Amino acid sequence: MNAPTNTALPTLLLSAQDVATLVHRLGLPAVLDRMAGNIHADYLRWPAFDKSARVANHSADGVIELMPIADDTTYAFKYVNGHPKNTRQGLPTVMAFGVLADVATGVPVLLSELTLTTALRTAAMSVVAARALARPSSRRMALIGNGAQSEFQALAFHHLLGIHEIRLFDTDAAATRKLMANLAGETGLHLIACDSIAQAVRGADIVTTVTADKTNATILTPEMIEPGMHINGVGGDCPGKTELHPDVLRGASVFVEYEPQTRVEGDLQHLPADFVVTELWHVLAGDVAGRTSAAEVTLFDSVGFALEDYSALRFLREAAGELGLGQALPLIPALTDPKDLFGLLRKSAPPQLALAA
Predict the structure, then answer these.
(1) What is the CATH number of domain 11-116+308-342?
(2) Is position 237 annotated as part of the catalytic site?
(3) Which entry of 170, 237, 301, 309 is annotated as an active-site residue?
(4) Distance of CA 165 to the CA centre of its chain
(5) What is the reported pTM?
(6) Which residues neighbour 125 within 8 Å (Cβ) at sequence distance 6 or greater?
(7) In a structure prediction context, what are the per-residue pLDDT tens digits for the chain, which is 357 residues long?
(8) Residue ranges of the domains in the chain?
(9) How many Å is the Cα radius of gyration of the chain?
């Protein structure tokens, strides 16, 4: 009896333009909200995932990383780079793509861009953490670093957390002007360009740092921190790339995504192994308290974890299905006999072409 023909569905391909179209059709606030909802729901299933720190290959100019994760039904990974000098060549600092695959068969069901999506999911993750850690009355934010991810952070906090005033600073004044121009029509959001980090953070309820340089920087120092602040440290995300003075962490209650990864990549890398931190999933699950008083300083040392990409990819697959976006990609060969891979060459070769000398 002949073996059954491979009838696996083609892989769905989502391009950068497909994802941009998806955002336009659903609306950015709705996309951020649904993505944040997915992230929160998946963090509540934390024990169900097979987790590992990302695999990174570092060079003098940047890093290329693979970020895998799986539960018992779905596997996901993201390829992502971080090259701060890329903008000099007209390239994004961060570029990414990702895959969802069926655990039972290994069939890749989705291949998607994740450059735009990474900015969306990072902003959504920031809000998930801030909902658990910041004061509920927070309305003012400082945004330090006004590059490619800054608008997404600003809009996520505005639409999902009620932030109405954002004080901006970047060492590149053109980046701040870019952000203000992009968000000029955003109703109810007051943007203020500042001359220094200290001016920007003064009186802020939330401070978000999202700088790109691969250096051990000290964007925030202890004298800038006020009682009750929530610090959202996003830019420090690989060895040798930090944003916060170590004493800022020592003076705060520190929360992380996946501790083994954050100890290597986050601002936490400068502190000893016995410095106590809490994985955020414990707070979301109600196992431990996040903020315990209005005066407490909380800090989310965010490096980006594979679970967030898993959440984002499954959102993309759901939303693309709703909107009819994407195209079928014949990534996996269709075989009459799954044991006869060589037969694909014979089937595809022109009659006059011999496969062997």
Answers:
(1) 3.30.1780.10
(2) yes
(3) 237
(4) 24
(5) 0.93
(6) 36, 39, 257, 302, 304, 308
(7) 444 555 556 899 999 999 999 999 999 999 999 999 999 999 999 999 999 999 999 898 888 999 999 999 999 999 999 888 898 999 988 899 999 999 999 999 999 999 999 999 999 999 999 999 999 999 999 999 999 999 999 999 999 999 999 999 999 999 999 999 999 999 999 999 999 999 999 999 999 999 977 677 899 999 999 999 999 999 888 788 889 999 999 999 999 999 999 999 999 999 999 999 999 999 999 999 999 999 999 999 999 999 999 999 999 999 999 999 999 999 998 888 999 999 888 877 666 555 554
(8) 11-116+308-342, 126-304
(9) 22
